[in-house]
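chain below, 496 aa
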Amino acid sequence: MPVIPNKAQFFQSLNEQGLAVTYDDVRLRTIVKPAQRVTAVETNLVSRFSRNVELKIPIVSSPMDTVTGSEMAIAMAKVGGLGIIHSANSIDEQLAEVQRVKFHRNGLIEKPVTVSLTDTVAAVVERRRLAQYDFSTFPVIDKQGRLVGIFTQSDVDYCRNPSEPVKKHMRPLKQLVYATGKTSPKAAYDIMYREGKLNTLPLIDKNGLLIGLYIKSDVLRVIQDNPKNYNLDTNGRLRVGAAVPTDPEEASERLKAIGEFIDVVVIDTANGNSRYLFETLARIKKETTLDVVAGNVSEGYSARLLAKAGADGIRVGQGGGSICTTRRETGIGTPQVTAVYECAQAVEEFGIPVCADGGIKDKGDIAIALAVGAENVMLGNMLAATKESPGEMTVLENGTIVMEYRGMGSPSALRDSIASRKRYGGSSTGTPLPEGVEAQLLYKGSVFDVVPVYVKALRKALEYVGAPDLEHLRRETLLWRITNAGLRESNPHDLL
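prediction:
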């Protein structure tokens, strides 16, 4: 039997020729010993996004403003993955997004939006409009933070003079049903049902201070939930991450607001070897205990520098995304399969995972990325244009449904977002060179339908190569380099 080159020899041979490869250049080899035969359903997909943040499936949604908001992050955690809330928004907006994810399962709003006794009805209505709140029930508190009443949409509807204070129209505390101290969602539901099928249940402490609010719809969702396959933190809440720009001051300010509600922070930049990133990384590691995923880089040397600086995970990929033009505009970039392999090898001794970010366009590319060293993949295009993505939906004249998808370095993103300008090297006023495009994608349906198909394909790949888990896939799986003819043969061909 001929000697089969191992993975190190495979990439060494390419390196000696000055060659780098991407997903369409390689295929996994199906050399399976009898003792290694597994079925797809037996495979274990547990992995990591960062040093301490686990994934039940190795799929993460990209922090792009047409990919990951709170709805996407909730869905990703429920299918076992992770969503990274983008930073192309204000601190308050990002805080609201991560809180929606964290509070989704416990039903308890720990820090509800409140109004004061002296606020006018008109002021509350305007505040709700400007903040785009999707709720209309507000606890009313006094200057000491004690609960004194509840103000709802019904109070607005029956108010004839909007300039009057909330105090005149609210339902006062003596008319309210409330709970004292820690109360579970099940106990809250029992109280709400027993006391007249209530829609809200405030929580107060022994001093009357407001400490939380239960909403009926949230409580029912928690009671009816089935968290078996969810990606949860140690408190049973959905895991979520958030991106911050490469600005030490802004990153610090954002994390002071959102840090307690996230599991991991991603420093979001196209150039992970910049001075600004290392300054931001050092500031975050000094001020928080959060895991920090840094990047993007595409060279092993750069990945190793980030690991030495304290990164808990590395994002790999520069210019490989379907909406990215970095390579064309600047001439830089390493094809993604080689980039992932080199970076994973460079940080192996640090015990931190590598994220393959960009360039994945087929389900099989996920298996290839994981086989060459990544512990997870970050998807943009393959999760965009789903029901849960925040992109704008349009119905064309022929009835086709499309959704907006844009790179964070696209002209419109650079125009709309200070964070995007910082990500691509611009100031708060100047606009840098665009490194992305804007497009429309055909509507894909729900994440709950799309991602399970990606997972089935990955499990099937593990079965083909005899890998019971992802660690075995990374360690043992070998590669073929294929020709253009081999790529053509990989796709449907010679059909009418």
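The CA atoms of residues 40 and 463 lie 5 Å apart. The mean pLDDT is 92.
thats it, cya
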